[in-house]
Automatic annotation (TrEMBL), chains A, B:
Cofactor: pyridoxal 5'-phosphate
Subunit comment: Homodimer.
Transferase keyword on record: yes
GO MF annotation: an example: DNA binding
Claim: Iron is one of the keywords in the record: no
Residue span, Aminotransferase class I/classII large domain: 65-390
Protein name as annotated: DNA-binding transcriptional MocR family regulator
Source domain of life: Bacteria
Signal peptide range in chain numbering: none
A Pfam short name: Aminotran_1_2
Length: 414, 414
């Protein structure tokens, strides 16, 4: 018989290990000032609204529905609320275009499962959201680089690159979708302008592929004007959502609370129908009680909660940017996000942020996420991500000077 | 460019459409007496215990943790509670052997993802749980028939059958696991005896494969003695859980409430580690708040709730079996489950339960699930599943005579 090692040498072995998460496990010591975790500030959770929602649900006539099985596409009143919210974004649609996911991470996993066979190509920005790479990696794609702000490869060049990876007689290799976070991206904090979004749609049309628009941070704009969502631009040019090629992944995690795991996909009905089959097979449905609670809380406090987060996170971004300006040495640059949760720092090319992290944690008691993990090819070693959602005054006034001192030392030693 | 139909012709198209669910959508009319849905009786949900749990969580110091992200393996106190529960079942383990899933359906999906590549073989009983076939189908296996009560193919014959399906030079084909519901199975209600369980372990050892033990109904025994779980037998023969080949899928859906989507897998740590990677990539974690609520409710009412369900469902099973005995014509037989939720009815071979269902709904206003859907090869057309969890006195005294009259008519017409 096979031994157990062979028995359990299965598909997951071929997945990329999440080294970065291992590193971050070391950072739980209380005296560490962490700019690492991309998590919302729990002090800002609308706790009372959730307490009221769960109490109403479990005390009233809705209790049985909250505790019972639910349809796979999701709780209809929540889908109707989301259709109106998408309408406010310029996407005319109805609840049949809305599919509830267990967080937007599940949306990315299902879209990977739907589109990718081993060896297919996914176009992604460099760097890109690590969780998207983890979701897609399970389906064993190759990656090509998407540079929507300018300098994309021609459609013909993307086709040639995909074709070149096929072995004789093998199927697959074709590009299947372009994935991007157009607003206040994780990890860079940058926002793609309208021309860049139109360019992505042009490229997708030429290649005949879908666009996955990850809009997890979209509502968190502190300054400047909204840029239309890619799905809204797609609907305008294609004649409506049923003809669109863009699949919009939204999330309540950053605005209301991540612990309930409620997100959504807004897409043509043909795609929603396929996602429903994946959901029936995958986990039947997202928890009924959480979908109903999110619906109640969204109806009552969503707008006010968005404003509250913008004020709090906007002030923290300002403080972080001011501290970087005051303390970082020449040769270090960073993004100036108009919203979201992250600032992206580029160190001189001779520096390695992963090596710097080890020293930062050990000596300076400061943590961040090294940037290489966000690059499918492991480049970007001289970059790092700072999250400002938990960056209070102490974190900024003590943590950034300590980090800057380390960077100076590293530059001097390089 | 490709048209949208081509663009969206993706992997989900190759999944088996869930025809049976389409049929069941027709059955929502209130005057229908339904034995179809495999759902718990909502009148028996421990609603007050859940109301208390959510109120405590959101009113107290635990609120931030309940609303925040959680580790992928699941809430540690719940895993510790489950390790003790598995210990009572004869499986010595600790929380490192427990992995929290979003319902046991997600456990089946993840195990399919972990083990199956297209063309691999899964051994399943005929009939088997429809949701397991849907979960596994996404990974495109072939199925071979497992007959644990006796008459299994020899290991050599299974190997030959798998090998015969490979095309020249193709990899894959090997059997990867045996899947079964040993206690009060969905759909048959039958329980596999100890010798049958040992036989499955013998076969799995010969083939060098895993065993997936779906224990969704195990706690719901109304009469007779518990048969040791396959995992417990495996631990006894292999020397402990780390050397076991059995992966135990449990669920709170049938005892506490399905709407929270909380289940678990108990397995060797090597498997739990791989499942954690799938979970990180798939949906990050199951909802924090629901895991914490389930833990509180399990700590306070689990044992009492099991007793309450046994009494209620046991009485409904008795009434259903008595009505079948009183009304069904000769040539019809059925299982006599010692627990669970289902009775399995076998009609004369000339009858087609799917055709009977259409007539039953239209004329007799009675619904059930035709048995063919539970067979990977579409056999079993003369079988059907009756659920007794919602079968109150009216359902049994009116519904079964109506159904029996239809069967008589069909036998006469055949």
């Amino acid at each position: 018989m096979m031994n157990l090692t062979d028995l359990f040498a299965t598909r997951a072995d071929r997945m990329r290990a999440s080294e970065i998460r291992e590193l971050l496990k070391l950072l739980d010591q209380p005296d560490i000032i962490s700019f690492a975790g991309g998590i919302p500030d729990p002090a800002l959770f609308p706790r009372e609204a959730f307490a009221d929602a769960y109490a109403d649900l479990l005390g009233g006539a809705g209790a049985n529905a909250a505790l019972q099985y639910q349809v796979s596409e999701g709780y209809r009143p929540l889908r109707t609320w989301l259709a109106a919210e998408m309408g406010r974004m310029g996407v005319a649609c109805d609840e049949g275009n809305l599919f509830i996911t267990s967080g937007s991470q599940q949306g990315l996993d299902y879209l990977g499962k739907l589109f990718l066979s081993p060896g297919d190509t996914a176009l992604v920005t460099w760097p890109t959201y690590l969780g998207a790479l983890q979701a897609f990696n399970a389906y064993e794609p190759r990656y090509d680089r998407l540079t929507p702000a300018g300098g994309n490869m021609t459609p013909a060049a993307y086709r040639d690159a995909a074709r070149a990876t096929k072995s004789d007689g093998a199927t697959g290799g074709e590009a299947k979708f372009a994935y991007l976070v157009p607003d206040f991206a994780n990890p860079t904090g940058e926002t793609l302008d309208r021309a860049g979004r139109e360019g992505v749609l042009d490229l997708a049309a030429d290649l005949g592929i879908a666009v996955i628009e990850d809009a997890a941070y979209r509502s968190l704009r502190f300054e400047g004007e909204d840029v239309p969502s890619i799905l809204a631009l797609d609907c305008a040019r294609s004649g409506g959502i049923e003809k669109a090629r863009t699949l919009f992944c939204g999330s309540f995690s950053k605005i209301l609370a991540p612990g309930l795991r409620v997100g959504w996909i807004c897409a043509p009905r043909a795609i929603v129908d396929k996602l429903v089959l994946l959901k029936q097979a995958g986990d039947l449905h997202s928890p009924s009680i959480n979908q109903m609670a999110i619906h109640r809380v969204a109806e009552t406090v969503y707008g006010a909660q968005v404003e509250r987060l913008k004020a709090a996170y906007g002030a923290r971004r300002d403080a972080l940017l001011a501290a970087l300006e005051a303390h970082m040495p020449q040769g270090v640059s960073w993004s100036r996000p108009e919203g979201g949760m992250f600032v992206w720092v580029t160190l001189p090319e001779t520096l390695d942020a992963a090596a710097l992290l080890a020293e930062a944690v050990r000596e300076a008691r400061v943590a961040f996420v090294p940037g290489a993990a966000f690059h499918p090819d492991g480049t970007g070693r001289n970059t790092l991500r700072l999250s400002f959602t938990l960056a209070d005054e102490r974190a900024v006034t003590q943590g950034i000077p300590r980090l800057a001192a380390l960077v100076r030392k590293a530059i001097a030693a390089a």
